[in-house]
Amino acid sequence: MPAVLEIEGLRKTYKSRRRGTRNALDGFDMRVDAGQVHGFLGPNGSGKTTTLRTLLGLIRPDGGRMTLLGHEVPAALPTVAGQVGAIVESPQFFPHFSARDTLSLLAGAGEVPATRVDEVLELVGLRDRAGERVKTYSLGMKQRLAVASALLKNPKLLILDEPANGLDPGGIREMRTLMRTLAESGMTVLLSSHILGEIQLICDSVTIISLGRRVAFGPVDEVLAQHSSGAVRVRLEAVSDLPAATEALTRAGVRVAGHPDHLMLTGVDKPATVTRLLAEQNLYVSELAPIAVDLESVFLELTATAPVPGQARQVDESMKVGGTGQPGATGGGWGA
Ligand SMILES: Nc1ncnc2c1ncn2[C@@H]1O[C@H](COP(=O)(O)OP(=O)(O)OP(=O)(O)O)[C@@H](O)[C@H]1O
After folding, report:
1. Ligand 1 atom closest to Cα of 43?
2. N or C: less crowded end of the chain, CB within 10 Å?
3. Domains in the chain, CATH or no CATH each
4. How far is the CA of 24 from the centre of ligand 1 (A)?
């Protein structure tokens, strides 16, 4: 599958006399294949927006290589810009314009056929409110308008920073359907989001960034499998057999945690071994279920951002160069 977006060893340091020096990107790598919906995940301050802004030529990197649609950027941005739609920061719209006026203006400026305006209004679910002024729109409706504006040129690659921001549950579901529809039509979608359940449902593949470096990437299923704990829940036909099963499994080197009506096993390579071990003792399994790990737990583990009772974690202190925090001491943070 060809890469629509490739980043190798991207580095960016922000320097400010007042705020000091900060490594936002520290040799970051990324690859997004054609036709995929790709999730870009990372804690606050981990470098997502810096990556996207650098790709779009809004920030100059300190090192590394980037390609969009097979062309080196930023040099080839004038060539590829027409094939990339992006919302990286909340766009500002004229409050007294309607969605249709706004999109017609943008279509005219971008030499997009006027008929495309109604197509994108329909796609993002704004058709019925398209004639009303933007200032009367809810946050979610403005978000839909932003997506519509990025879709106007029917881009090959659509980059969206937090597209579900401000959407209600129905809107989030519609956005999910829209992303999938776009991917099925051949468009590649790169979206950053903090709604990990949503990413797990929508995305084919993900990149997780922490402290300006890639800490996981690949198809969602593979990332989950790589970080699966190997935990298995076992129920027996007779609950009274659980102590005997615990003894047999422990003797065989399996770690067992007992519960009133089941056992939790960890460190099991092949669940079939458990069935065999127990059957040899005339103990019969009624359920053997691997415990699925979700993207949220993988994310919290890899970025070290799981909440710690009694501690208010601070945002990305660890990234300050020459400051009190040391790289890797903590992950990024969710706080203010
Ligand atoms: N213009 C800037 N000047 C100085 N530091 C900056 C600037 N922009 C970003 N940074 C710093 O670079 C780091 C990465 O920021 P970035 O906005 O890329 O993170 P992010 O992953 O998009 O975070 P969030 O999820 O909160 O949007 C942070 O420490 C941030 O404070």
Report:
1. 25
2. C
3. 3-225 (3.40.50.300), 229-290 (3.30.70.790)
4. 7
Torsion over CA: 172, 178, 181, 186 (sign): negative
Question: What tokens were used for 150?
Answer: 């990025």
The more confident residue out of 171 and 28 is 28
Residues β-bridged to residue 333: 44
**Does residue 296 register a pLDDT over 90?**
no
Vertex 44: Cα angle to 294 and 336 (nearest 5): 120
Q: Give residues (CB < 6 A) around ligand 1.
A: 14, 16, 22, 24, 42, 44-50, 316, 319
DSSP string, 130-184: TTSBGGG--HHHHHHHHHHHHHTT--SEEEEESTTTT--HHHHHHHHHHHHHHHH
Q: Are the CB atoms for 72 and 65 separated by under 8 Å?
A: yes
Q: What is the pTM of this model?
A: 0.78
State ipTM.
Answer: 0.97
Ligand 1 atom having least distance to the Cα of 212: 14
Pairing verdict, β 285-290 and 320-321? unpaired
